[in-house]
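ok so i was messing around last nite and threw this chain in just to see what happens. nothing serious, just curious
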Amino acid sequence: MSARDDASGSDGSRSDAELFARLRTMWTSTDPEPASLVDRMIAAIATDSLSQEYALLTLVETPLAAVRGDAEALTLQFTDGTTSILLHITTAANGTRRIDGWVDAPGGEIELEQHGRARLTRPTDTGRFAFDDVRPGLSRVRLTPDASDAGGLVTPLFEL
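result:
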């Protein structure tokens, strides 16, 4: 006798939908869904990467007003807990920026994304890299490790 024959009764008239409805009723009364489950799941999904982005951006020795203010130099540190990127940004006389950076991960490639374009460089053995003549605007830095390494680091967008 199969499970379906056993559950269908003598005339075999119970459908799968009826059986699933009975199972749902049994589980709803035995182990009901918490009332706030749907709201908590929506909030968890909506904020999933939010805490990571807040943790990535740390201002170093720079007042918060300098992020969008008229400061001549800005220092930013981004980290994901295992890899860190430190950026020192200065403004040139012509209004462009120079980015001097350091990364604590060996090898890899550094990509500066800005205005829909990307510029690439490789850090030195000590982790130093630089970008000259960078236009002001929203920017993102991406560390792509060598093929033998796993991981990488992508900063949230920041304003130069």
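not much to say yet. The first strand starts at residue 57 and ends at 59.
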